[in-house]
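Lecture notes, unit on binding sites. The following record was shown on slide 14. It pairs a sequence with 5-amino-5-deoxy-1-O-phosphono-D-mannitol.
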Amino acid sequence: DKGGYKHFMAKEIAEQPTVIGEAISHYLTQDGTDIALPAEIDFTKIDRLTMVACGTAFYACMTAKYWFEQLAQLPVEIDVASEFRYRDPVITKDTAALFVSQSGETADTLAALRYCEGKAEQILSVVNVATSSIARESDVALPILAGTEIGVASTKAFTCQLTVLLILALKAAKDRGTIEDSRYQELLTELRALPGIMNHALTIEAVTEKISRKLAEARDILFLGRGVMYPLAHEGALKLKEISYIHAEAYASGELKHGPIALIDKKVPVVVLAPRDGLFDKTVSNMQEVMARNGKVLLISDSKGLMEGGEGTWEAIAMPDADPVLTPILYAIPAQLLAYHTAVSKGTDVDQPRNLAKSVTVE
Ligand code: M6R
């Protein structure tokens, strides 16, 4: 049941504030002032974390690496499951191996998990389907509580994965004593406010629809981001190519001048994901290099960011303010809406894109 929406994907995008709210209540204590995870999750027992997944779930891991390193000072290794399983990765006894999967049945991710059995200290998973193979074969499986996701392009599972991974990173920071109590409380408060901010962010729909009509004309689109926005640039590009069939690539903003800037001309829209965080000025200077070469920049930022860096851009999307730690979850919304409306504009099959399956159970 599409609940009045044209596509499951649209319904699942709109459901995000609700399902994220449910995941937050599930993993926080009733009064919301602490994290409540199964007792087996104890980050004082491990010294490194290896995270493995495919596709969108991999981009959730890539984002979480920034969180675990910055908040918990925990060394993190990430890899896509199809590479990990065949490269003889070294898993030391002090490692927790964490597998992220919506379906819990992705063949490569499951094989990577089995590779870590008997090698890692603990096998954790972050899954949507709680009865899945990956959940069953883990020491601890943490459900993301996104509800059934039908659209082949993952949306609400991604933001729920991020939410649960951020809660895990905060727990790691607390266990390892790397976060001040006031900052811990502040981030929990921000987290509790997130569903409301996500709701607010969904009001950008009309502007993304208008911009998407122009993006639909493009042959190639680039996505740029720095820090936590870099994995999200990948997620935005993946979403767009999956359902609109437009060639899209993501680059770390700072990599631009190491090659990709050669692609820039007036036909290539460049989507810049840049909340006004500590890296904003650096991203803006990369963006100006694009504009100097007649690149068409779509800047996605908050109101301050647009005021400081928005001059001369082709298009802009104004996002609500949020703590920089939480922006990857929030900025998933414009990434998803741009892909969705571009696909609708092109008339492709949004929920069942060509050549793709919801669950990839063969390698
Ligand atoms: O079920 P999983 O999360 O393990 O699936 C992983 C990928 O196949 C999946 O995220 C895929 O990339 C999506 N179609 C992305 O929208």
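Take-home: The mean pLDDT is 97.
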